[in-house]
Structure formats: structure tokens, C-alpha cells
Amino acid sequence: MPIEETPGPLAGVRVVEAGQLLAGPFAGQLMGDLGADVVKVEPPGSGDPMRQWGREKPHGHSLWWPVVARNKRSVTLDLRREEGQRLFLRLVEHADVVLENFRPGTLERWNLDYDRLREHNPGIILVRVSGYGQTGPYSGRAGYGSIGEAMGGLRYITGEPDRPPSRTGLSIGDSLAATHATVGTLAALLHRERTGQGQVVDSAIYEAVLAMTESLVTEWDVAGYQRERTGPILPNVAPSNVYPTADGHAILIAANQDTVFRRLAATMGEPELAELPAYATHGARGSHQEELDQRIADWTAKHDADALLDLLHEAGVPAGRIFRAEDMLADPHYAARDAVVRVPDPTFGTLAMPNVVPRLSATPGSVRWTGPTLGEHNEAVYGDLLGLDADERAALGAAGVI
To answer: Residue 177 region, left (φ>0) first, then alpha (ψ -120 to 50), else beta?
Structure first.
């Protein structure tokens, strides 16, 4: 049966998502946003624990689930049972991608390793997201995103210098691994289009975090320099900090480039600052970072936030507020670009959530529906796609397989 036509560049691609929680499912969300038909496989009865996660649960319903499971179809299937494994392999025959984020070795224990998947679908792409990757001495360890953030180097450099390492307030390690898994999937799909061959995409959380750490390892390897926690600044990059205003707000100003700093100095009414040896170059400003920040803070503290931003924007100096959710929902630029989209939801009426990123001019993605109920698409997938009749589906349900 052909996939129901959906908008987006991945329309016509079917992804069977067998993961849970965040790292795998966020990759599924990204692919679904781009138009893929994502069939999410969940354990009967309980489903993905993400259905219950989140800080706020009005009426007992998660507000995270409708976002991370959007654009997906839900089927129930017990992969621990042989009948469930056989049914999963039938799904694989109709798929382009299998996405999973179990601990390495789990698919192998279920007799669903890549070689067996390939027997049923030679072009299948198996995308595997895990804490430490599929190989190496740590591969068998349990690995959450927070552990990957620590091992990948992000935690050590996050926070204030006089306090223990902090976290970002988001599950950034999981999300980075999912994003890299999606990039790998797209590359594998292109390779298969050219050669007909599938492959395994191995995305480790700690490596996805490591990939974001710029020259951190190289600096230590060559110069013995270890980046440390520096709070709201980057050492030797000035001015780029958060500055106070007269009405109690905080404005981020980033004017560390020479030409931009000259514009900032002129806006402050002190154009001569840009000519002083202490501030004339990027390196000099970095060496005098603390005193320069104080000088700018003394100036910003004399202005209300709106007036200050007007001055800076008119002068071409990058500056902005530090947004919270309520600011995003009220901001005209967010509104003009539909950065936040409101999606109908059977439980909540409508839900605001981030729109699809990135934007494609010819084949844009879309948010078509919020996270489905558990097993909502059993009939469509097992009946229409796999051809199981009502009696077969009923028997599998009674046996607890689906």
C-alpha cells in the first residue's frame, strides 16, 4: 500500500521507530516533520514512557508527548515475543528506515539484528542511537543524555566558575544525538538512492556532544589549554555579555568584532573607545574584558530596555532580550515567521509548539497532528498495510502481542 501523501521532502519514506524516551523519538520527530511516514512501535499496555513525562501534566496528560510524537502513527507490539518479532519483520519489509535507541545488544537478543532485517529488506537503513555507540568497551553500559553530556565535555564547561558543572535545562545530549542521527539517515537515504544499498547509522550521544565542542580537544592537545566554566561570557571574546538596564531587565550585547565595537562605542557617545590601545582590537578587548564589560554596564544601566534596544538596533549592534516562553508567544518576529505553530489536539483543543526547522522553499515540512493515542493506528498499519484481517488482529490482541 502506498504511503498516504504528505507534504515535505521525505514524503514517500517510511520510518519504523522502535525507540522510547527522547534520543530516538526526537529523530523520529524530525523525520516526521519533513514528511516521512513514521510508524512508532510501542509496548502494549504501557507505551513509551514519554507519554507520562513532563513537568506539567494538565488532566494527567503529558505536554511533552504531543510534541515529540507529532506526525507519527502509533502501533502496539511486544518485541520481546517471537510473534511480535515476526510481525516487526513484516513491518520492516514495508519500511525504508528502522530507528531504535535501545541499549546496544537489545535488537540482537530479540533476533532483530541488522543482518536479519536485511534478509527481509536488503535496502533497509538501521539507525541506532545510544549512549556510547554500538562498539567499544562502554557500549553495553546504560547511557542517558546527561551522561553523554558529561563524557562529551559539555557539562565541565557549563555554569559559573565557582560552582560545580551545571546543565542547560534541556535534554540537549539526547537532542544532539537525534539530530546527528537524522543527518546520518538523510545521507544513508541518498547513498541508497545511488547504490541500492542500505547501511547502519550509529549515533552515540557522547560523540554528538563532542562534535559541538569546537576546538576544545585540539587546544588541550596542542597548547595544554583547558576550557573552564565561565558563566555568561567566553574568555577573550569581548564585549559579549548580559548587561543591566534602568528598568530592571537584562540585555545581551554581542559587539566583539572590531567594526561592530566601533558602532557600539559611537552609540555610547564615546567613539574614542574604539581607538584606545586597550580596546582597538579583538585581542586587546579580550585582555581587558572585565573593565570593558563594567564600562558598558554603567552605560546600559542608564537606559530602559526598549530605548536601549532601539539605539543598538539602529546602530547595527547585535543585541536582544533573553526570551522566555511568554516572550516568544508575544514576539512579532516569531509571529511573522510562524516560528511557533498552534496544532489541533483532541485533549487540549490546540497546542503551541515549535514549528518545523529548517525551512525549505519548495518542499516545506509541516506539523500535521500531535502525538497519537496508544495503538491508535493498529488497524491502519496491521490491517491496511500488512493485510491482517480482523480475526487475526483480534487474536494477536488477545494474546498480548499487539
So the answer is: alpha
pTM metric for this prediction: 0.91
> Average model confidence (pLDDT) for the chain?
94
Are 89 and 112 spatial neighbours (Cβ–Cβ below 8 Å)? yes
Can you tell me the distance from the alpha carbon of 322 to that of 227, in angstroms, rounded to the nearest whole number?
25
| Domains of the chain in sequence order | 14-212+339-398 (3.40.50.10540), 240-323 (3.30.1540.10)
DSSP label at 212? Answer: T
pLDDT tens for 97-128 read 999 999 999 999 999 999 999 999 999 999 99
Q: How far is CA 25 from CA 44, 74, 129, 182, 347, in A?
A: 17, 12, 10, 11, 21
Q: Which residues are catalytic?
A: 174
Closest CA to 296 of 260, 265, 323: 265
| Residue 31 one-letter amino acid | M
The H or E element that residue 125 is part of is strand 125-130
Q: What is the pLDDT of residues 131-146, one digit of tens each?
A: 999 999 999 998 889 9
| Residue corresponding to grid cell 516560528 | 339
Q: What is the 3-state secondary structure (H, E, C) of 171-205?
A: CHHHHHHHHHHHHHHHHHHHHHHHHCCCCEEEEEH
